[in-house]
Amino acid sequence: MMRLDILNGGYGPGTKLLFALIRLFSGHPVPDAAKLTFYRPDFYGARAKEFTHEAMRGPSSWSIGDRELMAAYVSKVNESAFCVGAHTATASQAYQDGPRVAAVLADLESAPVEEPLRATLRMLGKLTAEGELKAEDMRAVLSAGVSPQQVVDALAVCAAFNTTSRLADAFGFELLSPEGYDAGAKYLLKRGYR
User: How many angstroms separate the CA atoms of 25 and 89, rounded?
Assistant: First the structure.
C-alpha cells in the first residue's frame, strides 16, 4: 500500500477551494475516494462517478439500502477497511437499521435478511473472492427469487466496488472517524455518487 501525495495537493485552485468549502461546511475533510475522482477526472474520475452513480442510484428493484449493503459486503470480502466503513454507515442510514447491516457483515448465513438478498450477497462474495462464477451459482441465485435484471444490477455494484475497494487499498485511503463516515453517508444518500 502506498499513500500518494498527489491525493493531498495535486489539484487546481478551483478544486482546492471546493475541498476547503466542503471541509468548512461539513466539519470533515474530503474523503480520499472523492479526492481520487477529482484527480485526472478525464482518465478515471468522471467515468467512475457516472458508472458508480448509475449502479448505486439508477433504476433498480434493489433498494438503495440493498445496494449499499452489497457495496459494504464486497468491500468486506476485499478486506478494504475504508470502503467497509463508508458503506456500512451508508447502508445503516439507508435502512435505518445498523444492527441488521452489522449482522450481515458478521455472518451472512444467520443474518435477518430475505433469501433473495442473501443469495445475491453470497454470489457477489464468491465472485469477489474467486474471480468467477459457474452456471450453478447463477441457478442458485435465480432459484432464490432474484430476477435476471436484479443479477445484472447487483453485478454492476460488485464491479464498482471491486474497483473502488482495490483503489482504496492501493492508494492507502485514510480511514475516517465514525462521525466522518456518518457525514459521508448523509452526503451519499442525499446526492449520490456524482
Answer: 20
98 and 111 Cβ atoms separated by less than 8 Å: no
Q: What is the CATH number of the domain that holds 75?
A: 1.20.1290.10
Neighbours of 160 (CB within 10 A): 22
Contact 45, 38 (CB under 8 A): yes
Chain centroid to Cα 92, Å, comes to 13
31-71 residue pLDDT tens: 888 888 887 788 888 999 999 999 999 999 999 999 999 99
Q: Which of 126, 160, 163, 190 is nearest to 56 (CA)?
A: 160
**Domain span at 100:** 12-191
